[in-house]
Design a protein that fits this description.
Two copies of one chain form a homodimer.
Chain A (H helix, E strand, L loop, with lengths): L3 E6 L3 H12 L1 H8 L3 E7 L3 H8 L4 E3 L2 H6 L5 E4 L6 H11 L3 E4 L2 H18 L3 E2 L10 H8 L5 E7 L2 H13 L3 H11 L7 H4 L2 H15 L9 E2 L7 H9 L2 E11 L4 E11 L11 E8 L3 E8 L3 H18 L30 E11 L4 H11 L4 E6 L2 H5 L5 E8 L2 E2 H12 L9 E5 L4
Parallel strand pairs in A: 1-2, 1-4, 2-3, 4-5, 5-6, 8-10, 10-17
Antiparallel strand pairs in A: 7-9, 7-11, 9-10, 11-12, 13-15, 13-16, 13-17, 14-15
Helix pairs in contact in A: 1-13, 5-6, 6-11, 8-9, 14-16
């Protein structure tokens, strides 16, 4: 069988990883795939560096369109990133009848509907295992491994930067800003870390998992996105005392009223496996009605872990290159004509439980007022922790922390109760509200 | 597209699960697969019970060969178990040109070479996701998700019964025999638990993973198999004090000299995720050269989790029913003409580290003699724990426990040193030796 020919757009960290791994493991991969996978062309603006990385046997060009125009190329790997030129090139490659492999979660989460429709029309595959959780084969697990199941919910640690920061904050008792600087120094966070720390990257990935799990179109614009920038060391400590860890979770869940799609910090019981995922590692919990709870863990980023996912997609495509649509796994797991129009719920309609920290005046009647407001709103309390004033503020302190864990209630109700509590004269600072997920 | 027709052999726990899940989630599965999957016939000796479970629309027969002889049937699901009639029926189904889905790890680990060769000849698929780790899509992860990797090692908790027993022994400080009885009472262990507690079931699964990971034939007869029946509560306690948990692991590893394939209890650092897998749950750690460490966790047994895996295989086959061999994933992950003849190493050639517990006379010079023997054999000590005699045996006791953790050495060397230590007059009871796996 003749080799399948690949053109690689973008010879950065992941591109070099794809090159390195394909070369190092070429025999192993050939023994599995039954045919050679050959990177015949590379496009990168820095042709000198790219040529040095690719070696002399590979044609390196500055203009990606030369790859797309080459009729010998079967598959285009897009590793440029972003929504701009990457989008244009992916669509052009599809129009030219190439299969596409991409790690570009932002592009697919925002423009996936357009891209998958174009691919469907042209009868080509767009594969994106590398777009979610790096080397963990979670897209394959969801699209193929769990096809028997009605997926109930997914909750994942799908951003390594923020998990590294949260792990360090807990380990060292430090505040967010301090740890972020350290993470940047160590290369775990980028110079502009906004997409990571504000939860946007995790939301891109959660959006893709949501589509695949429930057969809905990608709808990044409907995702609720909250990052970790406001988390304080004291909340991590209080959570610990109550038996919880705080993780940035990407969550998507099917309910009778619609689909939840949200990224935010959450308290998770410390005894859950996912609560023990530390550092830059990723993990995704998938709850299916037949299989029960499953978890997938590994490196969510990095050159070779991401390359591992890109190459797995290449092998899949090498096998199914000439197959007809019915023989291929649909892009979003469900057949295009069988997509669901279940709406994505507004955050105010989400039902979850909460951790609240109120900085209150240390005087009689405060607790009664706070619990009165919650009772009035129909929100029941699961646990409470009141610190002695002098433990929190030192001797003679006149304010203290009141920590409340609630049972499930609708976010809209909680918003109302929070506004009322915040208006109490004895509540001295903005209330901290962190959602709590039992993942049971 | 017309429905794909399935015949089910064996309407027991898993068979009923397949039936229930296929029915409950038929719309969801159809939306994914793009065609209906219909169980058209069921074979079970107890036709009355099977008919009641299957409903009136399904033909129930006592003679499985009626299913195999039916030209309308595309796929045969074998859920009978064992090596006898199950083997004959699987081979007959293959000869009749049917695809086969089976959860029968014992059959495939022992007779896989014959079965896969027959399937290859006839151009049919034999799918067995359900044979390893129940609902966890680990076969798919290994065969397809990690194709880019040279797999370095796999270590798994792949027997729920023994993990339940070990979890209970640790939680409650009880000895093996007591917990086994409890496990039998609760239905976590069978009336004859031999296959589970002696490690045979885990070895069947490890054998299958070994073949898929390294492209070698299934070779159950070469596996080293040691169960948990000799583990005492005190070893679990000592391990805990040293920062370890004891788990029954199925391990397979590629080394320069050959493949390791072994099942035995092992100390695992308590901080590893897999050390925290409790109760009847399963988890498999896979180390690949590109992806690094990945872990897959879920229910390893039970009606619906196993059915989840069986149905995922049905959907895969429904898609690739008419495809040619090059479009399908090879049975053992590697193309049949590209299998490796790497030998499986004898246990004496395995390199690992050890936990040793010596019950010794509480007198001067014992430690010097023991450490002298280890030094002579070139085995270096990683950590040591000597209990005060009265802590172990009460006041006035004249014997004590000496716990030694070693660094890596070859098993043959350890066997020699153990024999010498055992011969010391001051070593009062049989030495306990448990292997230790850092899984780093």
């Amino acid at each position: 069988m003749k080799p399948i020919k690949v053109g690689l757009l973008g010879m950065g960290t992941v591109g070099s990883g794809v090159f390195t791994v394909l070369k190092r493991n070429q025999e192993e991969i050939f023994r599995r795939a039954g045919r050679r996978i050959e990177i015949a062309m590379v496009a990168d603006l820095d042709t000198t560096r790219a040529q040095a990385a690719a070696g002399s046997g590979v044609e390196v060009v500055a203009d990606a369109r030369k790859i797309i125009a080459n009729p010998e190329i079967d598959i285009v790997i897009e590793l440029i990133g972003g929504y701009g030129i990457a989008k244009a090139l992916v669509l052009e490659a599809i129009e030219a009848g190439k299969h596409v492999v991409t790690a570009n979660k932002a592009l697919l989460a925002v423009h996936g509907t357009e891209i998958f429709a174009a691919a469907h029309r042209k009868g080509v595959m767009v594969a994106f295992e590398a777009a979610v959780a790096g080397g963990i084969p979670i897209i394959k697990a969801l699209r193929e491994g769990l096809t028997a199941n009605r997926i109930q919910w997914i909750a994942g640690i799908i951003n390594g930067t923020t998990n590294f920061i949260l792990s360090e904050m807990r380990d060292k008792g430090l505040d967010f800003d301090v740890v972020l600087k350290e993470a940047q120094r160590l290369g775990y966070a980028e110079a502009d870390p906004t997409f990571d720390i504000e939860g946007v990257d995790a939301a891109h990935k959660a959006t893709l998992m949501s589509a695949i799990a429930f057969g809905i179109p990608v709808q990044f614009d409907k995702a609720y996105v909250e990052g970790i920038t406001k988390l304080g060391a004291q909340d991590i400590k209080y959570a610990e005392q109550l038996g919880y860890r705080i993780k940035l979770l990407g969550i998507t869940k099917q309910t009778a009223k619609g689909i939840e799609l949200r990224v935010h910090p959450a308290l998770v019981p410390a005894k859950r496996l996912i609560a023990n995922v530390e550092g830059a590692m990723n993990a995704v919990v998938v709850q299916g009605d037949a299989v029960g709870t499953t978890l997938y863990y590994g490196k969510g980023a990095g050159s070779e872990p991401t390359a591992s996912a890109v190459i797995a997609d290449l092998v899949d495509i090498a096998r199914l290159h000439g197959a007809d649509a019915a023989q291929r796994v649909p892009h979003l797991a469900f057949q295009p004509q069988s997509m669901s129009d279940m709406p994505i719920l507004a955050m105010s309609e989400v039902v979850t439980s909460y951790y609240l920290r109120l900085n209150v005046a240390d005087e009689a009647g405060v607790l009664a007022k706070v619990t009165g407001i919650l009772a009035e709103a129909g929100i029941s309390i699961d646990a409470m922790l009141q610190r002695e004033a002098d433990e929190v503020g030192g001797e003679g302190a006149t304010q203290t922390d009141l920590i409340i864990l609630t049972h499930d209630c609708m976010e809209a109700k909680m918003n109302g109760a929070l506004a009322q509590m915040q208006a109490l004269p004895t509540v001295l600072s903005p209330i901290t509200r962190i959602r709590k997920e039992e993942l049971a």
